[in-house]
Amino acid sequence: MQSVAAEVVSLLADVAPRLARIAAFIAIGVFAANLAVAFGLIRYVAGLSGRLTRPANLPDEVGTAILTTAASTTAGYATLAEYRESGLLDDRATLVAVVINTFFGFVQHVFTYYIPVLIPILGVETGIVYVSARAGIALAITVTGVLAGGVLLSERNVNREALAAIDATGPEGDDRTGRERVREAGATSWSTLRRIVPRLALVYTLVIAFVTTYDVEALTGVAEPITGVLGLPGAAVPVIAVYTLDTTAGAVTIAGVDAGTFTTRTAVATLLIGGILSFAVSTFRRSIPFQYGIWGAEFGTKVIAVNTALKLVFISVAVTLLLAPVW
């Protein structure tokens, strides 16, 4: 009994400093991110969106929806749904607009999740490379949407007469004072931390306990033929398995593996592969309820299919480039 208690104390002593450091960085990052959102930084980044619509043969008003997506994914999609329902965009034009939306939806997550949460967990180098890879994937999908619009869309896909019935003025002005913005950012940050940190503490403790108690390399040796082909260590298997169920937990898992097991490239590739496998889970957990709620079942299924297919293609390309032996 005493030995068990001693092991628990030793485990907590090992976990507490790491967890405190990560939690501190997350707290600072989340608050800074919410300040950026409150003071409109994301809207400035999204201001480029309007320039993408003309080469894609879409009306400038679609840029409003893209801009809105950078601040609120739900609001952005709802705006596009309004354009479709009003007849401004047909189904093909709407799908192109949804694809173009991808990078600007990613921008929101950079400020609200990747910088304040994921990078502190993964470490600066691995975190920045991973976020850069995700940004490149999102940007490639957006560029694909622009090119597809230029080829597949024409005036037949857009009914500009429907604009008369649409309020396309964009988001209303924000008249909050600076103090109110800071206070709201603090409240939002506290809510986020209460949700993330307890789960992070539990997962991190369990991961450290697992890798301390068991020989991860031995347990995952059966996967060596698969991971060997990809150039990944056997320890990638549990990381991918956890990441498939929960992104943050997957990041915590790979952060808890012994130093030297992963290089930066193999760590990022492992997380991206986990992202591919997580589509099945995220589709049922998030995509279907959200997309069906916005578009209805029939068109929502098309949106999910297009989004998933493009992500699979470009994540696969990114993994191939990361694991290529030429650099």
UniProtKB/TrEMBL annotation:
The keyword Transmembrane applies. It comes from the Archaea. The keyword Transmembrane helix applies. It comes from Halorubrum trueperi. InterPro entries: MJ0871-like. The chain crosses the membrane at residues 22-42, 62-81, 93-115, 127-153, 196-214, 226-245, 266-284, 304-324. Coiled coil: none annotated. This is Nucleoside recognition protein. PANTHER family: GATE DOMAIN-CONTAINING PROTEIN, NUCLEOSIDE TRANSPORTER_FEOB GTPASE GATE DOMAIN-CONTAINING PROTEIN.
